[in-house]
Amino acid sequence: MNSKIKDEATDKLFEAILTLKNVEECYAFFEDICTVNEIKALAQRLEVAKMLEEKMTYQEIQQETHASTATISRVNRCLSYGSDGYKLILERIGSKRTE
């Protein structure tokens, strides 16, 4: 766990997110709490992580997502040395698709 972000306010934010029941509720909450660009950046990073896990090249990812090489590199670093959050989510959404 990253102690740099862990505090009471962040705990409350994550607890709030965990109460959301469906995609529509997520849209409503995230549209209120984030800017459109912030939401798009988060979505882009998740897509980049999925593509990196699929062994796509930086160039392929950049062409498809328009992510900068800095963003792709950062996501790749998280996949290799991070807290395994991307891997957890990709695993879960991957298994959800096969159900």
Automatic annotation (TrEMBL):
Name the record gives this protein: TrpR-like protein YerC/YecD
Superkingdom per UniProt: Bacteria
GO molecular function: DNA-binding transcription factor activity; sequence-specific DNA binding
